[in-house]
Amino acid sequence: MFSITIKLMKKSARMLIPAGIAILIGTAFIAATFLFSNSMDDSLRRQRTAQLGEANYIATMKTNSNGAVSENGSADRTTVADFNLDRIRATKGVKGARIDTSVSVSISAAGKRSNGYAVGTSTDRKLLPVRIVSGDQPVDNNEVALPKSVAKQLGVGVGDKVDVAPISNGSALSGTAVRDVRVVGLTSDPFGVYSFYGGASVLSENVVAAVYGVDDFDHMQAYMLLLDIDDADAAAAQRTVDEVSGLLPKSYGVESRRSVEAEAVRDLSSNNTSFPTIFLLSFGVLALFVAALVIANTFQVLVAQRRRTLALLRTIGAKKGQLYTSVLMEAGLLGLIASVLGIGFGVGLIALVTNTGVMEMMGMQARLILSWQAFVVPIAFGLIMTVLASLGSARSATSVTPLEALRPIELTDTSRAGKVRATIGVLTIIAGLALAGVAVWQLSGMLNGLDTMASDNYSSVLLMSIGGAALVFLGLVLTATFWLPVLMRGVVALVSMCGPSAKVAHANIQKNPRRVAATGTALLIGVTLVATIATGAASAKQTMGEALASRYSVDMIATGDGLKTSAVKEAAQVKGVAATMYAPTATVTAEGVNGGTMSLLLVGVKNTSELAGVMHADLSGVTVGDDTVLLPKYRATSGKEITFGSDAKLRFTAAESNGIAASTEQDGSASASSTNGGVSSSMRLKPVQSDYRRVSSNYDAVAFINTSHFNNGDVTATSHMLLMRVDTQSAGVSLSDVFNKIQDVFSYDSTVSITGPVAQRAQWETIINSMLMLLVALIAVAVLIALIGVANTLSLSVIERTRESATLRAIGMTRGQLRRSLAVEALLLSLVAGVVGVVLGTLFGWLGSYMVFSLYGKTVFPFEWGMNGIVLVVAAIAALLASVFPARRAVKTPPVEALAEA
C-alpha cells in the first residue's frame, strides 16, 4: 500500500497543496513562536543586565539567603585599589576586567550644555554597558565618548573638545570640572539602560576621578567588578574564577552572568519558565487548534475526490484496514514534509526579523537563538495533528461497501450535534461568566476599599477573570455547531433576496452546517483575538493617558533660575506646544494645614483664564484675585487631602530665606510677610481650592496667587516657571519629538529642568504600539490559516455539488452566476464569523482592560473601529480570493461531463 499511497499523493499533488500550506503555516508558527520566545527571553535577560556589558562573570558582595550582605562593614570603604586590578588582569584566562563606576555629569561646549550620565571606560570594549558606534573608547587622560544625541545637541563630533563638570543631584559630591576633554567616540544605548538620560557618556579614568571628587581613580569607591573570562573550557574557567576570587576584597565573590540574569528575571518567571515563553506559547496552542480544524476539512476534500479510486481499490481486494492505513500514511507523510518546510520557513522568518533591524525599530534588541524545541515540537505537531485530523476522513473512506461507493453519493453530514456537547458547552459558558463576574465584583470591592482580601490576592483575581473569559470562549466554540449555523441562516436569508446567486449560496451554506460551523469557528478564533488585543491596546492608551492627565494637570514644565525670555518665546513656537504660561515663583512653608506643615511653591498668574489655558483641570468658578490664593485639594507627595479649619485661613509669616512661609490664623483672613534684604510687607489672602494635581512633585503643593503680589514687592520671586500645554494630534507630531525639542531649547543651562507626564506618556504609547504590532502580526497567522480553511470548505462543497452545479448550468445558470454564488458563500462565512469575533473580542478586551487598568485610573472602554474594520475588510477580501480556485473547478467541467461523472 505504500507505493499506492505515493502514487495517489503524486496524482493529487495539486490538491495536497492547500493542506500542505495549512500545515506549513501552523508548524512555522510554532517554530517561530519558540524562536521568538528564545530571542525575547535572551533580549529580556540582556536588557535587565545590560549595565554589565558583555561580561560573563561578575564580582559583587556576597549575600546570604535573605539577600543581606554576609559580612559587614566593607562595602562603603572598598576602593578600586582594593580589587588588585593589575593582578586580576594578568591572571591566566582573564581577557578583560572593568570596575563599574558611574557619575552624573554636565557636558558643555560652545555655550550649550547637556546634563546626563557617564560611566568609566574600559580597555576591553565588550565590558562597556553602551556601544561605541563611531570612533573609539576613551583610554588616555582627558577623553570622552558622547551619546550621539548629546553630540548632536552640543554640535560637536569626534576630535572636538568639551568641558565636563559634576552634578551633585543632592549627594555630597565635591568634584571639579575638567576642561578641554577630547571627544574620541560616539555611543549608543541599544538596550535603553540609560534612556532616561538620553544615553551615557564614557569617561577616561582621570575625568571620572576628578568629577567624583577624588585625587586618583584608585581612590574611588567600587562595588562591582566586571570580568571577561575565557570559558571555552569549563574546568579551566572555574580555575580562573577561583584564582580571581582569591584576589578580591573581603566579602566579595564571583558569580556567572547566567546566574545574575536568572536573578534579574526571576520576578517575571514561574517554575523556571520565562514569561515570554508562557505568553507566546499560548499563540502556539491557538495555531494548533485552528490548523487542526483546517486540516480536517482539507482531508475531507481529498477523500471525497478519491472516493471512486478508493472504491476501485476495494473491488480489487484492498481491505478496509489497508485503505484506512493508506489515508493515515498519506497524512503522516504530508505532515512530515510540510512540517520540515514550516520549520525552515519559521527559522528564516525569525532570522530575517532579528538581522534586518526590524526589532530595533520596535525598541528591542534580538538575535536568533536556536533550541531543540523549535525543531522537535513543530514536527511532532505536524505529524500528530495531521494524522488526528485525518482520522474522520479515513473512517469515511472505509465506511461504505465497494458497490455503494461506486454509486453517486452525497457526502452531506446531516447528523446533529450531540446533546452532551451542547450541555457541556452551556455549562462551560455559565461557569466562565460566573468566574468573570466574581473577579469583577472582587476587584470593584478592592478599588472601593470594601474587599481587603481581593487587595491581598490581586493575582488570583486577575487569573480568575482570565480563566472566566477562556471558559466562555471555549463554551462558545463547543456550541458553535448550534448557534453559528442559525445566525448564518438568518443573515443569509436576507442576502438570498438579492438574486439567484445569493439563493444558491444560501442553500449551499445550509447543506452542511457542521462543516460550516467548523470553518467559521477557525476564523472566529483569530478575529476574536485580534479584536481583544486591539481593544485592550486602545483602552490602555486612553486609560493611562487620562490617568496621567489626572495625576499631572500640566503636560510639561520648565523650571530654573536661567530661563531666558528668548528661550521661553522659542519654546512657545515648538510644533505641538498649544499654549504656554511664563510665571514667577517663590518657595514657602505652610503651617497648621492638616495639623502639620506643608511645603508650597507660589506661582504668580494674571487670571484664571491664563491658567486654564495650560492646565487640565476644572477651574470654572475659581478666581485668583488680589485677596485669594488657589490651592489644590490633595498633596502631591502623599495624596492626602488638604483641609483647613472652619474659620481658619492661610496666614504667611516671614521666612528665613527669600520667599515667604505660611501658617493659619482664626480671624477669617490670611496675612503674609516676605523678606528681601530686611524689607518686609504683609498681605492677607483667602485660600480657595480646586482639584488639580502634581504641577510639581518637589513640593507638597503648588499654589497660585495674583502676579501683582510679585510686581508690587509683596513676594520676592526666587525662580521662574514655564507651564506648557501639549497637543500632538492637531500638530501631527509625536510626544517624544515635542519633549526632545523642548529639551534642546533649554540646553544652554544645566539648572533648567524639564518635567511633566509627556515623557512617561510617550514611553507608554511606544510600548503599547510595539506590542500591538507584534501580537497582531502573530495572530494574523491564525487568521490566514482559517482563511485557507474557507477555501478548503468551498472546495469540498464544489465536489459534493458536482451534479447540482451541472444541473444548474444545464438549466441556464451562467458561469459568472455560479462563480458569484461561491463568492457570496465565502463572503458570508468570513463576515458573519468576523463580526461575531469583533463583538466577542471587544467584550473580552473591555474585561481585561478593567481588570488591569482600573488600578491606575478610570478605565476607558473604547471600540476600536480602525483595527476591527481593517480585520473585517481583510477577511472579506481574502475570502473572495479563496473562492477563486473552487469556482474555477466548478465552472471548468462542461455540464454533460459533470452529470456523467456524478
TrEMBL record:
InterPro entries, alphabetized = ABC3_permease_C (IPR003838), MacB_PCD (IPR025857), Macrolide_Exporter_MacB (IPR050250)
Q: What is its main location?
A: membrane
Q: How does it sit in the membrane?
A: Multi-pass membrane protein
Instruction: Name the segments for region: Disordered.
Output: 663-684
The subcellular localization recorded is:
Cell membrane
Q: Where do the ABC3 transporter permease C-terminal domain residues begin and end?
A: 282-401, 777-895
Chain segments annotated as transmembrane: 12-36, 278-303, 323-352, 372-391, 422-441, 461-487, 516-538, 771-799, 822-847, 867-885
Pfam families assigned: FtsX, MacB_PCD
Composition-biased stretches, type Low complexity, lie in: 668-682
User: Which keywords are on file for this protein?
Assistant: Cell membrane, Membrane, Transmembrane, Transmembrane helix
Ranges where the MacB-like periplasmic core domain occurs: 21-238
Q: In which family does this protein belong, per the annotation?
A: Belongs to the ABC-4 integral membrane protein family.
| Entry protein name | Transport protein
